[in-house]
Amino acid sequence: MLVVDFLRHGALEGGVKYRGTLDEALTTVGRVQMDKVWAQIKHEVTTIISSPLSRCALPAQDWASEANVSCVISNQVAELNYGNWEGLTSHDIEQKYPNMLQAWRENPTDMTPPNGESMQFFAERTLDFWQKLLESHDDEHLLVVAHSGSIRLLLAHVLAAPIQTTRHIAMPYACWSRIEIQDGQAQLVFHAKDT
Predict the structure, then answer these.
(1) Each residue of 114-139: pLDDT tens digit?
(2) Largest Cα–Cα separation, the chain
(3) N or C: which end of the chain has fewer CB atoms below 10 A?
(4) What is the dihedral of CA 141, 144, 148, 151, to 10 degrees?
């Protein structure tokens, strides 16, 4: 059986903003949130896969070193590029681009943030990552350290749900989810587990 744990990064300096490509640091609390999850699985994980952004990669590399397992950095699980929305709060976006954020939240497949990444391209790269993961790993316990967007997309895929479903999946900081794959069948075991 293949076990895949997903861990969203913890809280970031500067509060809640859209920053898919901005490489901003974890708060002390954000790192503690992530370390709490790691403490529960560190003796089981055989490989760690991480987004390249430091909020994911730095903890992942630290943990891999501690557990003497490999850490693979993958651009395919990086967050959506929000284009002109990068670094803005929801309020900022509404002021500069009235009604666009709400429209995107309701149906992210029908629009793209200005100068950002389309949901179609984002889904293609994220699901390509998932397919390659399934083809190259078996009877392992993987930890994927990534972002709310990429993890939501993968969970929706496993649940055979449309992309619009991603907007209805809670994804707090340091959210921990587990998928198990056996005989080609993937199952969501838990989501947003408390540490």
Answers:
(1) 999 999 999 999 999 999 999 999 99
(2) 50
(3) N
(4) -60
